[in-house]
Amino acid sequence: MASYTISPVQSELKMTLYNKEVYAGAGINGVTVINKEPMGTTWVFSWPVTDGPGTNANIVGHLQGTGVQVANTPNYVWHYSLGLVFGDKRFNGSTLQISGTSQINGEWSIVGGTGELSMAKGTVTRTEITNTGNTRISELKIHAFYTPMNRTNVSGTTGCKFEKA
Q: Does the keyword Protein biosynthesis apply (predicted)?
């Protein structure tokens, strides 16, 4: 007989974080892997995510993924496939899976999560704070709902019997 516990249906997450993109020089954290004109340029990156915009901010994780240029309009449009991998004490090892098409100031969808943030759904609003030289700092306003998973309380067998066909 199986034993189980019922977890809360959903929890809400609201947080403001910051990411730092460095395109060239010391501290580069993204590279172009396909360079196509007028669109199709693809790059991969691992941007540090911090709890504040300044140099004394703490790194709480990394945005890791790819970006593909999907429109060649006056304001370039990119499609992103990202994983926000947390490394801080609260969500250590948990991830938010993020996807979407946006310009620099735009919104992405949270389409899933792992660990403490299992089955997350929500949005990330990205706003450029500074862009100087080869470095951009953006504010990330995260609003998500997730279902905390208690993986340690499931035990036993289902009592199913398998038979040969």
A: no
Query: Tokens representing 134?
Result: 């080869």
Return the structure tokens found at 155.
């035990």
**CA terminus-to-terminus distance, the chain:** 24
List of domains in the chain: 13-146 (2.40.480.10)
Rg of the chain over CA atoms, in angstroms? Answer: 20
Q: What is the pLDDT of residues 117-152, one digit of tens each?
A: 999 999 999 999 999 999 999 999 999 999 987 655
Rounded Cα gap, residues 46 and 31, in angstroms:
10
Query: The pTM is what?
Result: 0.83
Q: Are strands 42-50 and 121-132 parallel, antiparallel or unpaired?
A: unpaired
- Could you report the per-residue pLDDT of 25-77, keeping only the tens digit for each? 999 999 999 998 888 899 999 999 999 998 899 999 999 999 999 988 777 78
Q: Which two tokens stand for residue 85?
A: 């991998």
